[in-house]
Amino acid sequence: MSVRLPKKILVTGGAGFLGSHLCRRLLAEGAEVTCLDNLFTGSKRNIGALTANPAFTFVLHDVTQPYRGQFDEIYNLACPASPIHYQKNPVETVKTSVLGMINMLDLARDTGARLLHTSTSEIYGDPLVHPQVESYWGNVNTIGIRSCYDEGKRVAETLAADYRRAYGVDVRLVRIFNTYGPNMHPQDGRVISNFAMQALANAPITIYGDGSQTRSFQYCDDLIEAMVRLMAKPKAELDAFCERHGLGTPVVNTGNPGEYTIRELAEKTLALLPDSTSRIVYAPLPGDDPKRRKPDITLAKELLGWEPQVPLDEGLAKTIDYFRTTFSK
Amino acid sequence: MSVRLPKKILVTGGAGFLGSHLCRRLLAEGAEVTCLDNLFTGSKRNIGALTANPAFTFVLHDVTQPYRGQFDEIYNLACPASPIHYQKNPVETVKTSVLGMINMLDLARDTGARLLHTSTSEIYGDPLVHPQVESYWGNVNTIGIRSCYDEGKRVAETLAADYRRAYGVDVRLVRIFNTYGPNMHPQDGRVISNFAMQALANAPITIYGDGSQTRSFQYCDDLIEAMVRLMAKPKAELDAFCERHGLGTPVVNTGNPGEYTIRELAEKTLALLPDSTSRIVYAPLPGDDPKRRKPDITLAKELLGWEPQVPLDEGLAKTIDYFRTTFSK
Known about the structure:
Chain A is of the alpha/beta class. The first copy, chain A, has a single domain (8-184, 216-257, 292-309), classed as NAD(P)-binding Rossmann-like Domain (Rossmann fold, 3-Layer(aba) Sandwich), CATH 3.40.50. The first copy, chain A, has helices at 17-28, 44-47, 83-86, 90-111, 147-167, 191-200, 220-232, 235-245, 262-272, 298-304, 312-327; strands at residues 8-12, 32-37, 56-60, 73-76, 114-120, 171-176, 179-180, 205-208, 214-216, 218-219, 251-254, 259-261, 280-283. Chain A has a seven-stranded parallel β-sheet, sandwiched between helices. A two-stranded parallel ribbon of chain A has the order 7-10. Chain A has a two-stranded parallel ribbon with strand order 8-13.
């Protein structure tokens, strides 16, 4: 009878919004999880429930510095992901994307670990193609105030593709579209956390523009499911996938193609908090408002047999419940 | 009577094709020049004539490692620039662009030096706008085989813009279009060096496709003139320039908008080498052939009072003369 050792898995950015859900999921599957985080936007609160598990280890570490260890799998999530955070120190944001990627690719190359990197729909910039497919190259300003995130994430993809070609590193990328859920940062400036925190504080819910602009919202558990499935794919299957689709490296979009107007989202938020005295107010659209993006998830469906399962009403209820229990007095 | 000290200037990539011309020009103006190069694509041959000048210092150094020194001005040119070179070690190419830029920006920030960075028309990728203007965002594949150069150069621009905004570093960028002249690498795979070396070896001159595709060719001295003029601009004038044109950081295209077909270039090359027995042959166009690009130089004209002065016939004669005297037996 053979003994199967638990998988050893490294999660960078593991104390962040998405990282914390991933750590929880991997622990539930019996893995030994090392969570790396510098706690710039991540929080001990997000992993509080995990620390009692002996299979979980938290390491306070910044991925711009090399990190060594023996792991079967590396999930590279570390990077501030909301404009309010990544613009605070744009230079550090670029370094986190670029040096963090180099350090994790070096680790994967040197130890034979498999690596999944979380890229972003932001690499498509202000897209000229709708919905976005993986073969679309994007439309990004190199020298604007959001560029530190977008261009840092773009060159991280480039590095992943080059390590795969040059050193045979077993990489795979997800391009994550707008995602929400419990453990979101309450002050990240995103519309779901904004609305929830405003409604809980009985403050006005601010809609920029007339609220008819649409957004897609992916619940965190759906994304984690896609990531775990992608990590499980053998390299040979991914090589064939790239060949079939003319992609320079294995990459799939993960997002929810369902579209809702911002006004619908505000109304749903208020409906879930019937005691709130908040009212919707309208303000002018700022100049650098994130552009409309909607994922084409054909490739994720084909490769992973995956599509989002959690309806907005259900995910929003869980998210608002998290904000209520965590942040309201 | 006041004594004016000579300017101290650092040129990274100073033993390369363009770097060597820049060093020569700066020495001629009375500057003290420190030339940094790792000699991966640069060559001691290019700077041989300069080493006797006591105002010139060569330092064998790789810009991916920090470098310290007191300089008034830094010209950051270091990076392999032809596909044949930058694809040889794509990971190192990204590191040269990114870490080299960070190291030079750190040096500029810490010492108050002014920094001119050489970006490239490659950041426009396969452009959807003709001719290319500085406000065009480009069309670049993040995960292709040329991405290491294109995306590395893009994020270097981002870093420059962010150091300017965050730390007030006095940066300025040139986006260099196709440039040629003496000291080009004979095996860089570019069309001018290919044709010249083929004609000198009495080998067939290979045209890919039917030769009707056009290219723009900027003579090196024209570029160096633009760079020196841009470096001389006071920060306040550049700030106003950015404001006026809605640019996130000071940047100008430098290139020659004149267009020639590849067949014309082959014929001009043969006309300049009447003893060559080479004949033109045609081969199929490869899949990743560099796309047509043509600079819009309106902004360089406005800001620098500059436009290219050297006609193709004159520049080509000097270039072929260089290849003949340097490489033919």
